[in-house]
TrEMBL record:
InterPro entries, sorted: Amino_oxidase, FAD/NAD-bd_sf
Source organism superkingdom: Eukaryota
Protein name, as recorded: Pyridine nucleotide-disulfide oxidoreductase domain-containing protein 2
Membrane-spanning intervals of the chain: none
Family stated for the protein in its record: Belongs to the carotenoid/retinoid oxidoreductase family.
Main localization, broad class: mitochondrion
Organism: Chauna torquata (Southern screamer)
UniProt KW Flavoprotein keyword: yes
Function per UniProt: Probable oxidoreductase that may play a role as regulator of mitochondrial function.
Gene Ontology CC annotations of this record: mitochondrial matrix
Subcellular location(s) of the protein: Mitochondrion matrix
Length: 356
């Protein structure tokens, strides 16, 4: 249990709760859920530019990372098509991959297909069902995709000023504005309480909030004097109690709860808001193809990791379909902006291709 690990090493409850956020981030679990300690390890392993356990911002926003990858691929001869949705994987009579069909009727013929989509989308929607072993299909259907995440993107006309560290007179960002700011995390019991409410179908009344201000490090993201604020919040259930829909009223009610909480820490925040975009778990699923709204394409629980990701005997990025590979977060080692699954899948696919 994460709680036992933190209790062994730390005494400060606010410090333990802050560390605990990385153990439940994106997971429908509490710090007291067995196996939660691994999710913390997953988020602090590795390094950035030689600094162990460090994270960083991408200049120009996360889209700039995709653009960088695209530019490198293009220099190596790759042809990139955007706004071209795939509707199915094409198979030959021998069951071997022959390419993909696009919704506009175009077909792309190839001997190898790597899918960065979720296992559910790749195998249950894009692949002919009769070509999949039933036990494999059942395993994919049973992947736990519960998600507690509601993402709120906010535009503000001034930098938030926190009671614990008021802004400088010139309004310039201070060191804490350039880091992740955790709110409603004074104790692990608050995280557990927030989880318990969502497990019963109710958005947390005091949600865990991870607040980042990317424009404090990258001024080009917002007009002069203004800022963009990224709010990663939980816990919110995919399905609300009583069958209530996640309509505009429900979205705005939850966002108002989040903003009220931020107001307690940074008075004047609500008055500074000039725009907001609210993405609940169903929204994340509909817009980004994340099953259940899960940012990792499936829970990072111990029964869905390593040799069992996405299914036992299929953790090598290969699938039951010869030539079809999984290279996204639903494959080993799971979620996170690190590219490990893609790199590993590419090496496996390249090795197989050379043997064809």
């Amino acid at each position: 249990l994460l709680g036992q690990i933190l209790d062994h090493w730390f005494e400060s409850e606010p410090l333990k709760a802050t560390l605990a956020t990385d153990a439940v981030i994106g997971a429908m679990s509490s710090p007291h859920t067995p196996g939660s300690g691994y999710v913390l390890l997953h988020h602090v392993m590795g390094e950035l530019e030689g600094r162990r356990g460090a994270w960083g911002y991408v200049a120009g926003g996360m889209g700039a990372l995709s653009q960088a990858i695209a530019c490198v691929a293009a220099t190596r001869g790759a042809h990139i098509f955007t706004e071209k949705a795939v509707c199915r994987v094409l198979l030959g009579r021998d069951g071997q991959v022959q390419g993909v069909a696009l919704r506009d009727g175009m077909e792309v013929r190839c001997k190898v297909v790597l899918s960065n989509a979720s296992p559910q989308l790749t195998f249950l929607e894009l692949t002919p069902k009769e070509q999949l072993p039933e036990d494999f299909a059942q395993r994919i259907r049973r992947i736990d995709t519960r998600s507690p995440v509601t993402k709120i993107n906010v535009a503000v006309d001034r930098l938030p000023s926190f009671l614990a560290a008021p802004n400088a007179r010139d309004g310039r960002p201070l060191p804490h504005h350039q880091c992740s700011i955790h709110l409603n995390c004074e104790g692990t019991h608050l995280l557990h309480q927030a989880f318990t409410e969502a497990a019963g179908g109710h958005p947390s009344s005091r949600p865990m909030i991870e607040l980042c201000i990317p424009s404090a490090l990258d001024p080009g993201l917002a007009p002069r004097g203004c800022h963009v604020v990224s709010l990663f919040t939980q816990y919110t259930p995919y399905k609300l109690a009583g069958g209530r829909p996640w309509d505009e009223q429900a979205r705005n009610a939850y966002a108002d709860t989040v903003f009220d909480c931020i107001e307690d820490y940074a008075p004047g925040f609500k008055a500074s808001v000039i725009g907001r975009d609210i993405l609940t778990p169903p929204d994340l699923e509909r817009i980004f193809g994340l099953p259940g709204g899960n940012i990792f394409h499936g829970g990072m629980s111990l029964d869905q990791l390593y040799f069992a990701r996405p299914a036992p005997s299929y953790s090598s990025y290969r699938s039951p379909i010869p030539g079809l590979y999984l290279c996204g977060s639903g494959a080993h080692p799971g979620g996170g902006v690190m590219g490990a699954a893609g790199r590993n899948a590419a090496r496996v696919a390249l090795g197989d291709f050379r043997r064809l």
